[in-house]
Hints:
Layout: E1 3-8, H1 14-23, E2 27-32, E3 55-58, E4 63-66, H2 68-78, H3 93-118, H4 127-149, H5 160-169, H6 172-175, H7 185-195, H8 198-207, H9 224-227
Parallel strand pairs: 1-2
Antiparallel strand pairs: 1-3, 3-4
Helix pairs in contact: 1-2, 1-5, 1-8, 3-4, 3-5, 4-7
Amino acid sequence: xxxxxxxxEMSQSERILFLCEELGIPYNLIRHKRAPLxxxxxxxxxGNPTGKAPFLEDPDEGVALAESGAICEYILAKSSDRTLxxxxxxxxxxxxxxxxxxxxxxxxxxxxxxxFLMHSQLPADDxxxxxxxxxxxxxxxxxxxxxxxVKWLAGEDFTAADVMTVYTVTTQRYFGPNVSLAAYPNILRxxxxxxxxxxxxxAMEKGDPEMELLITADxxxxxxxxxxxxxxxxWKKK
Length: 238
């Protein structure tokens, strides 16, 4: 049986579709609609006690797995195609594992932390808000600096490190913070390169067919967190 991929629209689970499309792995896509901001009850499935997406079921192995990073590693290990990953001893292995994990260990927390503080009642000059913004600026500058010297995050080869990172600087910005990427030309170049990959286009068309891909510098001024979720049309294709 093929992999069963549970995807919640406009979420980190887009990474799993992107990876499967790049690897040419057959999968059965089960889409879940936000309700209207958080995960719906339809994701509270056996083997998925947190009720979050992504959620993967591999019937052949009796495996049920959540967390996008864990699922990506599982699929990469199961696949015979090694083009999107590196092993110990391969050139660029350390860069690959570093940037693969930087996506969720540093970049996304910086983005989400800034998002919540932006929507708080704290004044703009509050020290905590300023710290969070500085943390996000530093993370984005770091990624931009990396992409100044290499085509892809792990070097000259597109890898799962790129797959893990794209969501944070694209779809996440619909929820906030509405940070501009205009000051990060290398990230914008990289996003253009990612968006031109057929695997990315297929994944997004299957998983989020209504969503306008947020690969430009500026995000909407009003976020989905402010609007209470996807009932707003801010994120939809024009």
